[in-house]
Specification:
The structure holds two protein chains of two kinds. Chain A is an all-alpha fold. Chain A has one domain: ABC transporter involved in vitamin B12 uptake, BtuC (Orthogonal Bundle). In chain A, 75% of the residues lie in helices and 0% in strands. Chain A is built from 14 helices and no strands. The two termini of chain A are 24 Å apart. Chain B is an alpha/beta fold. Chain B folds into two domains: 242 residues, P-loop containing nucleotide triphosphate hydrolases (Rossmann fold, 3-Layer(aba) Sandwich); 240 residues, Rossmann fold (3-Layer(aba) Sandwich). Chain B has a six-stranded mixed β-sheet with strand order 6-7-8-3-9-10, with helices on both faces. In chain B, strand 19, helix 17 and strand 20 form a beta-alpha-beta unit. In chain B, helix 4 packs across helix 5 and helix 5 packs across helix 6. The longest helix of chain B has 16 residues. The chains are: A mainly alpha, B alpha/beta. The interface between A and B is medium-sized, with 23 and 33 residues.
Chain lengths: 353, 512
């Protein structure tokens, strides 16, 4: 993981042109898809057909496209939840857990005050989600700031606790009465649901996610705090000697990251499920982690990567149907993509030396 | 290149001859058609200011860099040195500025790691025996079973040298070996080098310290801006001659110091009252330090590294936790105040290693200039940073010293000397009240060092207090109004530099 941070700190998207960036991501995916195609071909499938099917299903039909956007929303949040702490040198593997706890606190608010009007209940749920995620992130980062426990390990391990807590409440105190078969909370009231657009499942979470991404970009690029955070991530010792309060930044960055992951949980249960179920996340936190390291914390990259990863995961279903491929081949594609990205910076370094 | 007559007669073939070596880094020419002869049994000093190309030339010989043009002759025959392994096969060894030992392993283990002719199952005792043998022969006393983490820098350097001797190197390249050594350690190093020379080893000493060169070099080659100026015999060299060779124009190494500090009239800027700290691991602990610094005085701290000087500077800044005692700054209690607050109230800090301790390598020069005081340039409550103001202030700060840097280069691409210049300019930019300067002139050439020292004196004349930590006794004696010697975390003595000498201070530094 140290190598990841080292590579990460070398990429300074702050001073790069957007056009270069877009081309870079497209090139990465071209290479990844070619390698993926070779694997499909070795497995006796027709790679061109498989990739064509994927693209037509996801981008060529309105229904497919809107599902891609729906899948992209939580990934936007969780990627930023990983990106922000990574700016100060923290590796937040815990977005998954923070998302679960945020969903739990948001659901509690929705169930406790179902009769509030939407304009009051939705912000309340959002606040509860933010708070839940932040608290879950605070535990590991506080231990880290005290110099006690490495946050990579503790955030990862806490991912196993959070879904269990959610399950405890969903099977126990929050369980809907009368529905014996499915363990889940009662349905939320209508005012606890994020509005959706265009008759699809695309909900307000998209706008909120894009807004947070924009704020993240602005703070990092233009503000004093962004500058100081980059200093903490770039060289903690210098930052400390220069009088920057690094413990404070560590705690703030991680807690705000956790809060954003918590908001992802809120937006999922409010915008999609309208109730809380155990294990409702298919690993959004981990995928967000992957996206951030693919994008090296670059906001534009996070946007593009979330979109592309959403296409790939949606494509998994169609590949299963049309090519008879197991869903797990998608993991191969994701892994190849990660390798292509990680291989690149060191490749350029060698050229320079 | 004309050879001194004595050498031509006695040692006709050079062991190594570098011919027309050229090395470019992008647009920068580090070495421009440089020629150099290295003979058996000589101490050959490569002298030049920062960026003159000394280290680059030697790293080419050691196979660390590839040259763009030129050739290397070994005993008259051209050879290719592509990697340090090639260099070792030709019996070339190099000790770098930053020593590369593994602290958690013993001396013997560290040396064993470096030996290439070792069988798969080796006899640790034999290696230790060989280490002892070389130690005795050349006066490099080290205990092979000691952990490297317990050794002083001087001892670690000896380990590096033994390592090279055991791997059969006959040409030893030492890059700024005395930079981190106390005077008596440096002297013992020179004695070792003398003995090695008598056993027909060749030694290249990269340095910009004239004193070292005059002390031990048989031959001196001066480099300036990537070119070899000329070589002279050590016996013919004088300080003035070398300086005029190193610099185009006449430089003055003299600094102007006006009057004595006016104590007692004013309140102290800094008061440490019985301050103790707890050092972690190999770090030193301070014990019951009482220290006051008044406006307009420079207090010099002398000591061999590892006796608490670094910790003393860190205590004043607030990096080091005070377990006992009190720290007062400007008459107020700062024992538990943050570094940010301390800096904001007028304390500046120039650390010994600017790259790791003062800058963020992957940020631009301009961004690095803001880091100590981002609030000053923040606009709209922090939503914006006024980069124009930063740039103006930076030009002003650098202009005071006659330095100039492109604001948009990354800090990591600056050389060590340039980084030090940048940090000195930054830390003195906003008229600090108290300046902590740790190894102020390390890595600086004579000219820049003089500028830096003068800047410190000017700040003092304008009423700032200075805590000057250094191992360069000459520097301490020239600059300090008061001199304090640290030994083993305690104040071992306090002097007026005019009334004492290096001998007394040196004794206290070593605890004898």
């Amino acid at each position: 993981m140290t190598t990841l941070t080292q590579i990460h700190s070398k990429i300074t998207w702050i001073n790069k042109k957007p056009v270069q960036e877009v081309l870079r991501y497209l090139a990465i995916f071209l290479v990844a898809f070619i390698l993926f195609g070779i694997i499909l071909w070795l497995a006796g499938k027709n790679p061109i057909e498989a990739i064509y099917d994927t693209l037509v299903y996801t981008l060529g039909t309105p229904g497919g496209f809107s599902e891609v956007i729906v899948k992209m929303i939580p990934l936007l949040f969780t990627a930023i939840a990983v990106a922000l702490p990574s700016r100060v040198g923290l590796i937040n593997v815990g977005a998954e857990g923070q998302l679960y706890i945020g969903a739990l606190t948001a659901a509690s608010a929705a169930l406790a005050l179902p009769d509030l009007p939407a304009w009051a209940l939705l912000p309340l749920m959002a606040g509860a989600g933010l708070l839940g995620g932040a608290l879950w992130a605070f535990i590991p980062v506080w231990l880290r700031a005290r110099g006690l426990v490495n946050e990579t390990i503790s955030t990862l391990l806490m991912n196993y606790i959070a879904p269990a807590i959610v399950s405890f409440f969903v099977y126990g105190p929050l369980r809907a009465t009368g529905v014996a078969s499915a363990p889940q909370t009662p349905d939320f009231s209508l005012s606890a649901r994020l509005p959706a657009f265009f008759g699809t499942r695309i909900h307000l979470g998209l706008i909120i996610g894009l807004l947070i991404l924009g704020i993240y970009w602005y703070v990092m690029k233009y503000t004093r705090w962004g500058l100081e955070m980059r200093a903490v991530g770039g060289n903690p010792q210098s930052a400390r000697r220069n009088g920057i309060p690094i413990s404070l930044y560590l705690i703030l960055a991680m807690c705000i990251g956790g809060a954003i992951a918590g908001l992802a949980g809120m937006s999922e249960i409010s915008g999609i499920h309208a109730r809380l179920r155990p294990n409702f996340s298919p690993g959004f936190g981990y995928t967000g982690f992957l996206i951030n390291w693919l994008a090296f914390g670059d906001p534009l990259g996070i946007l593009l990567m979330s979109f592309i990863i959403a296409i790939i995961t949606s494509g998994g279903d169609i590949l299963q149907l049309s090519q008879g491929l197991p869903y797990a081949v998608l993991n191969i594609l994701l892994a190849i993509t990660l390798y292509v990205v990680l291989a690149k910076p060191s490749f350029f370094e060698r050229k320079k030396a | 290149m004309p050879l001194p007559p004595g050498l031509v007669e006695t040692k006709i073939d050079p062991l190594f001859a570098l011919r027309g070596i050229t090395k470019r880094f992008g647009a920068v020419i580090a070495n421009d058609h440089s020629d150099l002869d290295i003979f058996r049994g000589e101490i050959h000093a490569l002298l030049g200011e920062n960026g003159a190309g000394k280290s680059t030339l030697m790293k080419i010989l050691y196979g660390f860099y590839r040259m763009d043009e030129g050739e290397i002759l070994y005993q008259g025959k051209p050879v290719q040195i592509r990697t340090p392994q090639n260099a070792l096969e030709l019996q070339i060894g190099m000790v770098f500025q930053n020593l590369n030992l593994i602290p958690a392993m013993t001396v013997a283990e560290n040396i064993t790691l470096f030996l290439r002719d070792l069988p798969a199952v080796y006899q640790p005792r034999q290696v230790s025996e060989r280490i002892r043998e070389f130690s005795r022969q050349y006066g490099l006393e080290v205990n092979p079973d000691a952990l490297v983490s317990q050794l002083s820098i001087g001892e670690q350097q000896k380990v590096e040298i033994i390592k090279l001797l055991l791997s059969n190197a006959r040409l030893l390249i030492l890059d700024e070996p005395t930079r981190v050594l106390a005077p008596h350690e440096a002297e013992s190093l020179f004695q070792v080098l003398d003995r090695l020379r008598h056993s027909n080893y060749s030694i290249i000493l990269i340095t910009h310290k004239l004193k070292d060169v005059l002390r031990c070099a048989d031959r001196i080659t001066v480099l300036r801006a990537g070119k070899v100026v000329s070589s002279i015999l050590g016996s013919e060299a004088t300080q003035e001659k070398l300086i005029s060779m190193m610099f185009d124009k006449e430089v003055t190494t003299r600094v102007i110091r006006q009057g004595q500090a006016s104590l007692a009239v004013e309140k102290p800027l800094l008061q440490l009252v019985k301050v103790s700290t707890q050092g972690e691991g190999a770090a030193a602990s301070l014990v019951g330090i009482d220290l006051e610094i008044y406006p307009g005085e420079i207090v010099g701290i002398a000591g061999v590294s590892g006796n608490g000087q670094k910790e003393l500077g860190d205590v004043v800044l607030g990096m080091e936790h005070i377990i006992q005692g009190r720290k007062l700054l400007f008459g107020r209690d700062y024992t538990r105040k943050s570094i940010g607050q301390t800096r904001k109230d007028g304390v500046s800090f120039i650390p010994e290693n600017p790259l790791s301790m003062a800058t963020v390598p992957f940020m631009t020069v301009l961004e690095n200039m803001v880091l100590t005081n981002t609030r000053r340039y923040a606009r709209a409550g922090g939503l914006k940073v006024d980069w124009q103001a930063v740039q103006q202030d930076m030009q002003k700060a650098l202009g005071r010293f006659g330095f100039s840097f492109s604001p948009y280069t990354l800090a990591k691409s600056l050389s060590g000397g340039n980084l030090q210049r940048l940090i000195i300019a930054r830390e003195l930019a906003h008229d600090p009240k108290l300046i902590i300067a740790s190894y102020l002139t390390s890595g600086l050439d004579v000219q820049s060092a003089t500028i830096a020292r003068q800047a410190l004196l000017n700040a003092r004349d304008e009423g700032a207090g200075v805590l000057l930590i250094s191992e360069d006794l000459d520097e301490l004696f020239t600059l300090s109004d008061r001199l304090i010697v640290l030994f083993d975390g305690r104040i071992a003595g306090e002097f007026n530099p005019a009334e004492t000498d290096t001998y007394t201070v040196g004794h206290l530094m070593t605890g004898s």
